[in-house]
Write a structure and sequence with these properties.
- The protein is of the alpha/beta class and 347 residues long.
- 23% of the residues lie in helices and 29% in strands.
- It has nine helices and 15 strands.
- The strands form three sheets. It has an eight-stranded mixed beta sheet with strand order 10-9-8-11-6-12-15-14. It has a five-stranded mixed beta sheet with strand order 2-1-3-4-5.
- Helix 7 links the parallel strand 8 and strand 9.
- Helix 2 runs parallel beside helix 3.
- The longest helix has 13 residues.
């Protein structure tokens, strides 16, 4: 349920909440006769019934707990309920009031929390406040799944840097593109890039753009492809565009500077760690790197990345721009219309 907010809640975490009505028993007496003998059977039924659910829908909007409890009538009896929530209820005033206080006011006696929130503004304080008011709190249920759900948010909170996803497509003989010396608009030949992704895998790339707060390319990609880097084939917001352009080669007329989304330009020479610090200072919890081999190889050499997604198409071009040389798994995670999709996690 929390995943329903995937494309709209960043930099907040995705959170879901479910309220369950407990200890409802129904006793039913059944009488029947067999060969002139009467029998009476007592059936006792126990139920856990979901009475409401909700999720964090949009950054700045109500949290999952609020959306879960809001539809219930004012006179609803919470005395025998359990609230299940994937992340610790907040205990501070931000864009919305503390969810822990709402739970206390409603009189919910038991709360099951998927994981503690590492955000220093919360970090166990929500759980402590609930317990201080006599509420039973269970923590760490399906914690691994909850961590995977919010790996981007957790990376920023715990490692103080964005979650880094490297993505590229290559041919079966290891090339990302033709060798293109000229750039669009200068009158040169062979300015169109090699198309490797098919219609379906292109949609999946745009899904990745919607899932991450930022998308990054270098000046070479910007000059040769003149991309918009927008999410046009999937729902969700356009990511913040990040351009590495130390020499200031990319002019304002390029599509990276249109009104589709904000664009950040890094012109420093501090390397990849400095870029990550810049993004973290802006509360950007994830970045999708769609750059060329120069950018990708530099990040791979630095070693600070989290996932690598590689698409391999069943075509060969014989010569061109070499893709990064990495070891891929023997088996692809998925194959779509002949294109094999690989995912490698770092560490």
């Amino acid at each position: 349920m929390a995943r329903k907010g995937a494309y709209y809640v960043a930099p907040n975490p995705m959170v879901g909440a479910v309220l369950v009505k407990n200890t409802e028993y129904r006793v039913q007496n059944t009488e029947y006769r067999v060969q002139n003998t009467e029998y009476r059977v007592q059936n006792t039924e126990y139920r856990d019934k979901i009475v409401s659910e909700g999720w964090h829908m949009r950054y700045g909007g109500p949290h999952a707990e609020v959306n879960c409890l809001r539809p219930l009538p004012d006179d609803f009896d919470y005395s025998d309920t359990t609230l299940y929530v994937s992340l610790e209820p907040c205990s501070h005033w931000g864009k919305t009031p503390p969810c822990a206080d709402l739970i206390i006011r409603k009189g919910i006696p038991r709360v099951v929390v998927g994981m503690q929130d590492p955000n220093p503004l919360v970090s166990g304080q929500g759980i402590a406040r609930l317990r201080a008011h006599g509420i039973e709190v269970v923590v760490g249920v399906l914690e691994a799944e909850c961590r995977e759900l919010n790996k981007r948010f957790l990376c920023l909170q715990e490692k103080h840097r964005p979650y880094v996803i490297l993505k590229w497509a290559e041919t079966a003989d290891g090339y990302m593109d033709y060798k293109r010396e000229s750039v669009p608009g200068d009158g040169g030949e062979n300015t169109k890039p090699l198309v490797i992704s098919n219609k379906v895998t292109k949609q999946l790339v745009h899904q990745m753009r919607a899932e991450n707060m930022a998308i990054l390319v270098g000046s070479g990609t910007a000059l040769k492809d003149n991309p918009r880097l927008a999410t046009t084939h999937w729902i969700g917001r356009n990511p913040i565009r990040v351009l590495l352009d130390r020499r200031g080669r990319v002019g304002s007329s390029y599509r990276l500077f249109n009104d589709d989304a904000e664009t950040l330009v890094y012109r420093g020479d501090g390397g990849w760690p400095e870029v990550l610090r810049m993004l973290a200072e802006r509360n950007i919890h994830s970045v999708l790197v769609e750059g060329g081999p120069t950018v990708l190889n530099a990040i791979l050499a630095d070693g600070t990345w989290d996932e690598m997604h590689v698409e391999v198409a069943p075509v060969r071009i014989g010569d061109g721009v070499k893709a990064p040389e990495v070891t891929l798994p023997k088996e692809a995670e998925e194959e779509i219309e002949g294109n094999r999709l690989y995912c490698v996690k770092n560490g």
